[in-house]
Amino acid sequence: MKKLYTIIIVAIMLQLSHIEKVDAQISLGFRAGANIAQFSFHTSETYGVSQSKTRLNGAFRVNVPLNSLFKIQLEPGYTQLGTKYLTHSKYKSSDGTTEDIEKLDVATNYFELPLLLQLNPRLGRFETIINLGPEIRYRTGKVKGKSSYSYSENGTIVEEDESGPEDDFDEDFSKFDYGIAGGVGVALPIKSFKVFAEARYHFGLTNLVNKDNYQDFDGTVQNRAVSLNVGVLYSLQKK
After folding, report:
1. What is the bridge-based pairing of β-strands 70-74 and 176-190?
2. What is the pLDDT of residues 110-145, one digit of tens each?
3. Where are the domains of the chain?
4. 3-9, long-range: CB within 8 Å, 24+ apart, which pairs?
5. Residues 115, 9 contacting (CB under 8 angstroms)
6. Which residues contact 42 (CB under 8 A, 6 or more apart)?
7. 143 or 20, which is more confident
8. Start-to-end CA span in the chain (Å)
């Protein structure tokens, strides 16, 4: 898969070498915002429910025009992902009701590099932003998590336990991730600047589970996130 991304990057660079001259110039900027992230679990058995958690992201933005409508956008940056996971079991019998609740909260941090094709149709004073393309991620630091467990009988907690948030799940997860990102937004040009807001969906394709440690695990765990961002671009064109 790393070879595939090398081929994609080389192909884009070859295209850039044949770009027609346009009035728009390279723009530089940054974005920052929030991720609503969770893991997508695909297994033969359902063990629990994945729930989203809110984290942060930020990136530099290099915007290179291909023509008056299309651009290539490179965004080296930092993103925080993760998930919450809930397992809830309830049993009723003649002796009463028992209940097991397990909660897991996992946090991961990545260096992220989206490489996007951008479409910018005009909408009056505004520019519409439509992005789509591949992205790669490399995990930085360790995977941190915390977990809790409670067991109750007839509504009374009999046993409970909590650990973390310094539990180390590092060996359980892959370092490398790749996927597809796509989103929409709007930009307001102000002289040499553009102020923009954007929503984007991140569809991870890597199985995050380290199969060397979980050989009996027959499913996949993948990153999913919705990011909401605001930012500024500055055109290097001299007015």
Report:
1. unpaired
2. 999 999 999 999 889 999 999 999 999 999 988 888
3. 29-130+140-202
4. 5/134, 5/136, 5/178, 8/115, 8/134, 9/115
5. yes
6. 219, 220, 221, 222
7. 143
8. 43
